[in-house]
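Sequence, please.
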């Protein structure tokens, strides 16, 4: 397959393959997040769909990448006769799967990836395609197999110049993206665990992510959401509070994390402290999602009411109602009835 200067091929809803003379990248998932790879390093971007604002983390290229075997640009995904003779069968299947995905044949691609699932990269690709089909059990098996070969994960895709990325929702406002490394694989496994109701497995993967990415606000946000969406005990609520100390509200991800910090404080019975957190979160409104700001105002109004600040509660609720009359129980709280 020869590469033209630039092509963007729509494969399926939420899946694109980006090709240029020097690189190829595979993207899964909805609008709002992306992962890009360049010779200067990797840049991960977490965004709030519709806001134009993205949360970005720069990761240096792995030292081993410079020494990894590379396939010449003109030969990527195009194994000639003699090259195929000397390429292992599982690697040929991986390449054939990538070519099938490029051609838009997801079923054939999945079949090739599963034939080559002894390769961590093939298992990762198969797992992501199964996840996209909402076939959670095989998706989990493939991704766990990919983690089992962590020292080789990403190596074959790097060899052929393929940068794969997947997007997952962390909260209704924040998307995270993943690539074939431990962080991305565990984010996918967290998503599978949440979708199948296995919260203990989701927590186990998030705990590991906190070890390898202790300062990543997306990981902290994922943990806070898991805790607060469940019947958290006092120790868990206090952990969310401790974890989110010092959050500066510089990005939309941090604004979302402040929402969960405030919720934890409120559930601990510290209403005034929670109000202060929501107020700090609402000071930065530019490029924040309207839904996130509305949720913050609504929850602050509920706390205003609890502490007897009735006029402020009413004013906040009226503003929320003016923006979205159907939001939560705002009509009932304002006494508007049916």
């Amino acid at each position: 397959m020869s590469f033209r200067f630039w092509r963007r091929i729509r494969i399926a809803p939420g899946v694109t393959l980006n090709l240029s003379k020097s690189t190829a990248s595979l993207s899964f998932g909805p609008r709002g997040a992306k992962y890009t790879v360049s010779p200067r390093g990797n840049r991960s971007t977490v965004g709030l769909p519709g806001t134009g604002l993205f949360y970005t983390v720069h990761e240096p290229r792995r030292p081993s990448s410079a020494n990894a075997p590379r396939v010449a640009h003109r030969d990527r995904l195009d194994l000639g006769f003699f090259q195929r003779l000397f390429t292992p069968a599982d690697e040929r299947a991986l390449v054939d799967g990538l070519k099938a995905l490029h051609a838009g044949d997801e079923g054939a691609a999945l079949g090739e990836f599963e034939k080559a699932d002894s390769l961590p990269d093939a298992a990762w690709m198969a797992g992501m395609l199964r996840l996209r089909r909402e076939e959670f059990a095989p998706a989990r098996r493939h991704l766990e197999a990919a983690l089992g070969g962590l020292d080789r994960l990403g190596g074959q895709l790097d060899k052929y110049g393929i940068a794969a990325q997947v997007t997952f929702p962390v909260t209704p406002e924040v998307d995270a993206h993943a690539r074939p490394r431990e962080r991305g694989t565990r984010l996918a496994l967290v998503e599978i665990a949440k979708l199948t109701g296995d919260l203990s497995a989701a927590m186990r993967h998030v705990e590991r992510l906190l070890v390898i990415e202790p300062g990543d606000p997306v990981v902290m946000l994922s943990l806070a959401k898991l805790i607060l969406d469940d019947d958290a005990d006092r120790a868990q609520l206090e952990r969310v509070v401790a974890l989110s100390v010092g959050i500066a509200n510089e990005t939309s991800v941090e604004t979302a994390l402040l929402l969960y910090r405030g919720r934890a404080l409120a559930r601990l019975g510290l209403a005034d402290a929670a109000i202060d957190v929501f107020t700090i979160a609402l000071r930065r409104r530019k490029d924040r999602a309207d839904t996130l700001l509305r949720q913050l105002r609504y929850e602050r109004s509920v706390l205003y009411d609890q502490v007897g600040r009735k006029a402020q509660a009413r004013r906040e609720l009226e503003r929320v109602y003016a923006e979205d009359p159907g939001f939560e129980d705002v009509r009932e709280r304002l006494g508007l009835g049916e």
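Strands lie at 6-12, 15-20, 24-28, 33-38, 41-47, 54-59, 162-169, 175-178.
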